[in-house]
Every structure is written in structure tokens, then in C-alpha cells.
Amino acid sequence: MSKYTAKYLEEKLAKELDAQYVQAVDESDGCGGKFSVVIVSDKFKGLKMLQKHRMVNSVLAEELKEIHAFSQKSYTPEEWEKVQQEKQ
Q1: Closest C-alpha to 23, from 36, 41, 4, 33
Q2: Residue 49's domain is classified under what CATH number?
Q3: Which pLDDT tens digit goes with each residue over 5-58?
Q4: Which of 3, 4, 13, 28 has minimal Cβ neighbours within 10 Å of its Cβ?
Q5: Which domain holds residue 51?
Q6: Is 0.85 surpassed by the pTM of this model?
């Protein structure tokens, strides 16, 4: 069982990436080993998807040693706004 929670991941990512929005979901049925995250940050501006993912993975380097499944969607505020509009 992982010692990490969705709340912990949200707080760390928000702080380290100056994120405007972070949502982490524990999809592991309680073991804390599988998470999906959405992160919106200005720090992603000008970066390709792989660069964004590497940035997030470097922030969570220690945590990812214990988390066995991690998916992320990383957006700039402009990209996020577009995603939200498409949902309507």
C-alpha cells in the first residue's frame, strides 16, 4: 500500500508547478498505487506533451517509485479553457 494520497499529490503538484488547477484521482481501490491527474499550469507554456509529462514526473520522482500506475493530462490555462469549452 502506498503512503501517498490524491490530496498529497494535488498539494505537491500545485506548489511545485504553480498550478492553477490540479485534480488527482486514486483509481487503486484503496491501495494508493494507481492515480490519474489533471494539471493546469503556466509552466507548461511552449512545451510539447512529452516535456510536460517529464516535468510532472520529475516533481513526483520519489513518489513514482511507489506508485505503480500514473496517468496525467497536463495543460496550459489556454489549453484547459479549450477543453472545458469542448465539453459544453
Answers
A1: 36
A2: 3.30.300.90
A3: 999 999 999 999 999 999 999 998 767 689 999 999 999 999 999 999 999 999
A4: 3
A5: 6-86
A6: yes
Cell of 69: 500506475
H-helix segments, the chain: 6-16, 49-59, 77-87
Q: Give me the number of domains the chain comprises.
A: 1
Query: Which residues, at least 6 apart from 82, have a Cβ–Cβ distance to it below 8 Å?
Result: none
Q: Is residue 1 part of a domain?
A: no
